[in-house]
Amino acid sequence: MPLNDLLQNTLVVYKKRPGRIVTLGDKVEVELPDGTRLKVRPKDVIPLHPGPLESLDGLSGVTGDVQTAWELLSGDQTNLQELAELAFGDYTPASAWAVWELLEDGLYFQGSPDLITPVSRMDVERQIATRQAKAQELAVWNNLLERIRSGSFDAAAVSIQDRQFLSEVEDLARDKRPNSRLLQGLDRAESPENAHSLLLELGIWDEYVDPYPARMGVPMESPYLGLPELPEEARLDLTRLAAFAIDDEENQDPDDAISLDGEEIWVHVADVAALIPPGSPADLEALTRGANLYLPQGTIAMLPQQAVSALGLGLLEVSPALSFHITLSTDGSVQGVEVQPTWVRVQRLSYQQAQVRLQGGDAQLNRLLDQLQTFYSRRHREGALTMDLPEVIIRLKGKEVLIRPVHPLMSRVLVREAMLAAGEAAARYARQHQVPIPYTIQESTPGLEPAEDMAGRFALRKKMKRSQISLLPGPHAGLGLPLYTRATSPLRRYQDLLVHQQLRAHLAGQPVRGEQEVLSTAAMAEASTSLANHAEFLSRQHWTLVYLLQNPGWIGEAVLVEKSGMAGKFLIPALAWETTIHMANELPLNTSVLLEVVSVDLPKLDAFFHIHSVNS
Questions:
Q1: Contact 70, 112 (CB under 8 A)
Q2: pLDDT tens figures, 87-135
Q3: Is 149 exposed, middle or buried (0-12, 13-18, 19+ CB in 10 A)?
Q4: Any idea what DSSP says for residue 481?
């Protein structure tokens, strides 16, 4: 029906709704089903039937034989009037509107009122199958929403159809997608925390699901890459010296050991660069990881297991090492440094075993400790700041979370000082021989002084500036060292491996990486390491909260380390956990209290405590 044939009381379409022409003019007045009248341009309406149409009531509900009309018209074209007469027996406003709805639906016919084409049989069958699938999905969707809202959802009876919606929630909980239809349907904000909460609520997940490594995008499996055999090369034989690899009991990748040679110290480090040169597949894979991922549920290595088996100190009768020969002056300064590939015979000890031997008068370990005490004293004369805040080791054994404190043992001091001395020695050697490496520097913060109490050490940690990577050697204020690099954990940390690769190339007379390549590589490694560290931090928080869920009503000592009005921040040494509590009474810093856990919000990584009592 042409636009110029518009008459009063004509049936038209306006914005996909039926309308009746009330008056004509430059603009036509259209009445809509709800009684609204609008003046619109003639070209904004589509005429369907000339009428006369006195009311829009009764347009719906007309019946006919649409499928027969579709079959009869197969391969032909028609118009709205002819189709209305064929499918519904007559051309009326109601049948004209029914034909328009057929065109809008698009199952059997498509086109415009003046030119209508039947849809092919193949396309009709495809659309029917698609619509049936959507209808079934909608039924599943509505059923799932109803079960969740009514509290009748059963995690043990999840259907395959349910799973597609729930998998979206799991992906959101792991921060692998930004949205979830199920959270939308339940009118809940779409966030990883809310997704985690819903999964716990429904019993799809339990508290033993740790989503944080996945959220950080860190690999959750150790790499599986082949490595070459150890190359044939000259190595200094130091198997005559007693060498001690001292670490935590659970440590599976020993990469440093200590020896005493007369009055001089050797720090032996796993010679990882001997098997993993720059640009090799294992090197590139390690760079993307940055460091080992230490989780309470297990360790995800940055290097293939073959590297640990072949290079871990003390895992074989004789181990290859890159060894730092350090001469200390009487005031604890590093006076001389040599770096050499070596063979060493290493005895592995836990910190506790080494502590027992120190207390039992072991001559070698006590002489090593005496030497390194001078290095420790010199660092503190140079302004080193030791924070000594509580640390714990968290392990998952089966489904039981175990938390134990890290005790301040002299064996730990021995290892710490030896590794710091090796870090300074490696930095000095690289500077002396003009080998580009990433130095670790830290600017001093004016006014910082050593603190003896818990609150003072807590404040000290917050005020200290972050360390940085630099191609130029410079002081590390927090360590009290004039220059420093990380060089003693190449099995665990890529930056250390990078230093070893540079030193090894220099020792072999081979080209070393240029400064810009070292800087960009170190920056990539630092970014990867930061992700791994953050994943570890969040995972440790998660499992600490699981520990509290396993120990309802837990009570433990806490120390007030910071105040803001009546809000106090308490540090719980047994958990290495910080919590903020509103205090009913004013308490001085360093007050010791007993806190009792009240509740745990696992998805939000939060625990709520109240002050059980104030220690006298």
A1: no
A2: 999 999 999 999 999 999 999 999 999 999 999 999 999 999 999 999 9
A3: exposed
A4: B
Q: What does the alpha-carbon distance between residue 437 and residue 496 come to, in Å, rounded to a whole number? A: 10
pLDDT at 58 over 90: no
Please state whether beta strands 334-344 and 236-237 pair in parallel, antiparallel, or not at all (unpaired). parallel
What letter would DSSP give residue 141?
Answer: H
202/153 Cα distance (integer angstroms)? 7
Token pair belonging to 173: 């909980």
Count of beta carbons in the 10 Å neighbourhood of residue 357: 18
Gap between the Cα atoms of 528 and 517, Å rounded: 17
Which 3 state secondary structure label does DSSP give 580?
strand
What is the sign of the dihedral through the CA atoms of 445, 449, 454 and 455? negative
Query: What DSSP character marks residue 48?
Result: E
Question: Among residues of the chain, what percentage have pLDDT more than 70?
Answer: 99
DSSP conformation letters of 412-437 = HHHHHHHHHHHHHHHHHHHHHTT---
Average predicted confidence (pLDDT) for the chain: 94
Distance CA 294, CA 536 (A): 6
Residues 305, 1: Cα–Cα separation, whole Å: 79
Site of tokens 């063979």: 343
Q: Which helix (H) or strand (E) holds 470?
A: strand 468-470
d(CA 124, CA 523): 58
Angle, CA 414 vertex, CA 573 and CA 506 arms, to 5°: 120
Cα–Cα distance, 300 to 222 (Å, whole number): 5
* Residue whose pair of structure tokens reads 């400790």 in the numeric block: 369
Cβ proximity of 281 and 225 under 8 Å: yes
- In the three-class reduction of DSSP (H, G, I as helix; E, B as strand; rest coil), residue 602 is classed as coil
What is d(CA 184, CA 106) in angstroms, rounded to the nearest whole number?
29
Query: Which residues, including other chains, have CB under 8 Å from residue 216's CB and lie 6 or more apart?
Result: 531, 532, 534, 535, 538
H/E/C letters for each residue in 369-406? HHHHHHHHHHHHHCCCCCCCCCCEEEEEECCEEEEEEC
**Helix H or strand E encompassing 160:** helix 160-173
Tell the burial category of 603 from Cβ atoms under 10 Å away from its Cβ (0-12, 13-18, 19+). buried
**Residue burial 490-523, b: 16+ Cβ < 10 Å; e: rest:** bbbbbbbbbbbbbbbbbbeeeebbeeeebbebbe
CB 423 within 8 A of CB 486: yes
In 3D space, the residue among 258, 465, 478 whose CA is nearest the CA of residue 388 turns out to be: 478
Q: Name the residue with tokens 């009764």.
A: 58
Task: Give the DSSP letter string of 553-616.
Answer: T-EEEEEEEEEETTEEEEEETTTTEEEEEE-SS---TT-EEEEEEEEEETTTTEEEEEEEEE--
Edge-first strand listing for the sheet containing 334-344? 236-237, 334-344, 319-328, 264-270, 256-261, 243-247, 346-350
pLDDT, tens only, 216-245? 999 999 999 989 999 999 999 999 999 999
Tokens of 233: 């090369």
Helices and strands: H and E segment counts in the chain = 16, 25
Sign for the pseudo-dihedral over CA of 35, 38, 40, 42: positive
Contacts of 324 (CB under 8 A, 6+ apart): 266, 267, 268, 269, 337, 338, 339, 422, 425, 426, 429, 487
Are the C-beta atoms of 81 and 39 separated by less than 8 Å? Answer: no
Q: What is the pLDDT of residue 164?
A: 87
